[in-house]
TrEMBL record:
Pathway: Cofactor biosynthesis; adenosylcobalamin biosynthesis. CDD domains: Precorrin-6Y-MT. The lineage of its organism: Bacteria, Pseudomonadati, Bacteroidota, Flavobacteriia, Flavobacteriales. This is Precorrin-6y C5,15-methyltransferase (Decarboxylating) subunit CbiE. The gene is cbiE. The keyword S-adenosyl-L-methionine applies. Keywords: Cobalamin biosynthesis, Methyltransferase, S-adenosyl-L-methionine, Transferase. InterPro entries: 4pyrrol_Methylase_sf, 4pyrrole_Mease_sub1, CbiE, Cbl_synth_CobL, Cbl_synth_MTase_CbiT, Cobalamin_biosynth_MTase, SAM-dependent_MTases_sf. Signal peptide: none annotated.
Amino acid sequence: MKQTKKNIDFYLIGISNHSTPTWNDEVFKLINKSTIFSGGKRHYQLVKSFLPKNHTWIEISGKMDVLIKQYNVIDSSIVVFASGDPFFYGFGNTLQRLSPNAKLKTFPYFNSIQLLCHKTQTNYNTLKTVSVHGRDWSALDEALINRVELIGVLTDTKNTPSKIAKRMLQYGFDNYSITIGEALEGNNEHIEQLDLLACTDKVHHSLNCVLLKQIALKQKPFGIPDSAFIPLANRTNMITKMPIRLSTIGVLELQNKAVFWDIGSCTGSVAIEAKQHFPHLKIIAFEKRTECASIIQKNTEQFSTPGIAMVIDDFFSLNINDYPIPDVVFIGGHGGRLKELIHIINQLNPLVRFVINAVKESSSQVFVEELTQLNYTISTLVIQVDTHNKISIHSAKKINK
């Protein structure tokens, strides 16, 4: 028995900047028999002369929930035009997220990063693509900290090539060249390769993408010497020593975690070391000393560690619901209010992993007693560095029942 052909809810057609589309016969036939079309304002300007005279155009302009409601009242297939490949940071992903049961068929084109690689004859076998288009810097930061050799970046009017170059230089990533592809395949196409410093003063066409190519190796430290950190004034010993710091990073078990809080960050040494080894992490460094703001910032810059969020305030005065819920918390300082701190965090996330480096026996006692009562299991590692006091690295994990 012949099966009935399933209805397609959305046809996704990837287009370039060409004034004359390079579609195949199947796409032209689809357009000629369709009446409902959708896409951005720029897409409409590119394709409207090829659409049937009596057509309806639904503009994609920002509010996705409103757009989906418009789509839902239509009982015929909708042809959607999108830039390049609809599933490359594109509208296809949005449709799948907001209309998971919709049936899609795609006719993709090259995405902009592919086009820039083609036009610059760049081997992109090892390319890592990230987007700062309407997003924060986290994906780019992770790629840079990981020392990725070739990075493709999707930009927007806020996070421009100039701004990317300035941020990279701020954090010491001067070992890349930057190639900017502007209005690719359009009438104003322009491609140029620059050093980062030259790029900081340039203004580019709003429609652009970027290739970052590593031109020199940049070493990534495994254990930063204590003396390399900018210290708190007159408190040079107030830093988690490197052997303790690396042991603490191991005990934190950050491999599969998403959000890490460093409470009592001081110079930022633990947060920086954690970000170096696990650049995917969203790290928030809490510190009440106002003078530490510039110290942490300078340390993140000199050790090429972007992406650590700083909160300079008394932790106990904060509305902690304003911050991403942590998977792991390191307690570097508690101002004598350890018990209160433990209960605040436990209420926020009763499955959080706690770690503390305790010098005083009283801190060890409070940590162990309070978290044991909260049904955590405690592990302890005791380390002494040179003639410094012994440090008890306590970790607490919720017991699964």
